[in-house]
UniProtKB/TrEMBL annotation:
This is Adenine DNA glycosylase. The keyword rRNA processing does not apply. The lineage of its organism: Bacteria, Pseudomonadati, Bacteroidota, Flavobacteriia, Flavobacteriales. Binds 1 [4Fe-4S] cluster. Its EC number is 3.2.2.31. It comes from Spongiivirga citrea. One of its GO terms (molecular function) is metal ion binding. Belongs to the Nth/MutY family. GO terms for biological process: base-excision repair; mismatch repair. Pfam families: HhH-GPD, NUDIX_4. It is an enzyme of class 3 (hydrolase). The keyword Transmembrane does not apply. Keywords: 4Fe-4S, DNA damage, DNA repair, Glycosidase, Hydrolase, Iron, Iron-sulfur, Metal-binding.
Amino acid sequence: MFSQHLIRWYSINKRDLPWRNTTHPYPIWLSEIILQQTRVEQGMPYYFKFLETFPTIFDLAKADESSILKLWQGLGYYSRARNLHATAKHIAFKLDGKFPETFEGLLKLKGVGHYTASAIGSICFDLPTPVVDGNVFRVLARYFGIDTPINSTQGIKEFRDLAETLIDKSQPATFNQAIMEFGATQCKPQNPYCLHCPFNESCVALQKNKIKDLPVKLKKTKVKQRYFNYLVFKTSSNESILNERTLKGIWQNLYEFPLIETETSINEEHLRSHDQFKNLIGANPFQIVLYNDKDIVHKLSHQHLHTKFWVVEIDTTPQETVPIDSLKTYAVPVLISNFLEEYNF
């Protein structure tokens, strides 16, 4: 009954999204990776850009990582882009361009978890594997009145087992897309459309006035506060410095200005006396100006970056430089990209 009502609702209310007009695994996989941690409205332009630039998985596999990171710029969670490239190379060069057609095979691909493997498997290969993501957790928790935390080991198993019993095995792709769409557009986190919901007479959360209480989630990890000081060099020959972040962590393989990280927000006096700053400047005369009087707070999932951009005018610098007019060609974090858009060199 639940599946029938859901699929009927979907047939009337589904959005016309480009990846719904194909069962070819390449665009489906591409859309699923882009839409991890990303809203459809934000992800759609990236989907089109990637397909236009890399029409086949062979094109994506042959591309260099920097061009992929540049195209991905602004989407965040850049490990997704690196995994996308690694998987493209694996499928193109090891599997002759063919995606695995089993759930287990899909799950072995880099960057593909239970949810993504289920989506690709059901849509492309008609596998009866239910998707369980944030939208699905919310729909099931509210409809069945389940208060097991969705980010606990027990909760993940409980919801997956429940989804297994609900999926319409005769049309798994339609069921999976229906429940994802229902969570995204009808049973939304805030202000769901309960008045015009096909389940408003049988939804436990609605009957018990627990819509705002479900789903239950264990308390998040404490957010770490970090303090970034970027040195934006301007030499007399219109050169600047960009460094590649090679260490694991945020923004691996992206470029940024020389960075001095401090334990608290600092002023110019503290910056001038910092050993790292002295090493960068050497004996060269310079002028320094703080670009933003107030820290720019860039929020990531588990950390907030309190950022200052210090513009350093200097004749020469001991470090390797790049032309200022080439800065926008590099793959950089959105924090740096926004600065480059705003600052007039």
